[in-house]
């Protein structure tokens, strides 16, 4: 129940959260691919079954259940996906999305497309520090948490 409430709050506030994540330097650019029938029904790292019709993704380091806005910068299409699995590992891809997400991003024909990832997260200083580490970024000095 709590997870659903948190997800709903994130989606309602996603516009402001996206702007804040952009300002905080929490975006990542790279390539995305999608998974479909080959993984449909299999268990994911999170323990739930992969459903190609859900808006989900695999990311190598973000915590499970993190909601990530994936934007195709070529078409400006975007969707919000939830991390349920690990991967991709190595190569140029930074995220694998479900078939449903790939359809919303307009990438079904090519199978791969450039993307911008923006985690829709709690923006407290402790959480920001954790996400900079998970995204493997150096935290900008302007965004360093300060003592009260």
UniProtKB/TrEMBL annotation:
A GO molecular function held by the record? lytic endotransglycosylase activity
Q: Which function does this protein serve?
A: Lytic transglycosylase with a strong preference for naked glycan strands that lack stem peptides.
The domain of life is Bacteria
Q: Which family does it belong to?
A: Belongs to the RlpA family.
Does Nucleotide-binding appear among the keywords?
Answer: no
Checking Pfam families in the record gives: DPBB_1
HAMAP family annotated for this entry?
A: RlpA (MF_02071)
**GO terms classed as biological process:** cell wall organization; peptidoglycan metabolic process
EC no.? 4.2.2.-
Q: What is this protein called?
A: Probable endolytic peptidoglycan transglycosylase RlpA
CDD domains listed in its UniProt record:
DPBB_RlpA-like
């Amino acid at each position: 129940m709590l997870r659903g409430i948190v997800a709903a709050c994130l989606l309602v506030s996603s516009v402001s959260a996206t702007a804040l994540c952009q300002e905080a330097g929490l975006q990542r650019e790279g390539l995305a691919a999608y998974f479909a029938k080959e993984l449909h029904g299999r268990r994911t790292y999170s323990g739930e079954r992969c459903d190609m019709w859900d808006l989900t993704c695999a990311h190598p380091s973000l915590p499970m259940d993190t909601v990530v806005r994936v934007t195709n910068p070529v078409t400006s299409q975007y969707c919000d996906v939830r991390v349920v699995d690990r991967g991709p590992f190595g190569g140029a891809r930074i995220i694998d999305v479900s078939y449903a997400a790939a359809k919303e991003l307009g990438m079904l024909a090519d199978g791969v497309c450039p993307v911008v990832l923006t985690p829709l997260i709690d923006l407290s200083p402790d959480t920001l520090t954790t996400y900079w580490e998970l995204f493997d970024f150096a935290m900008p000095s302007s965004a360093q948490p300060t003592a009260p």
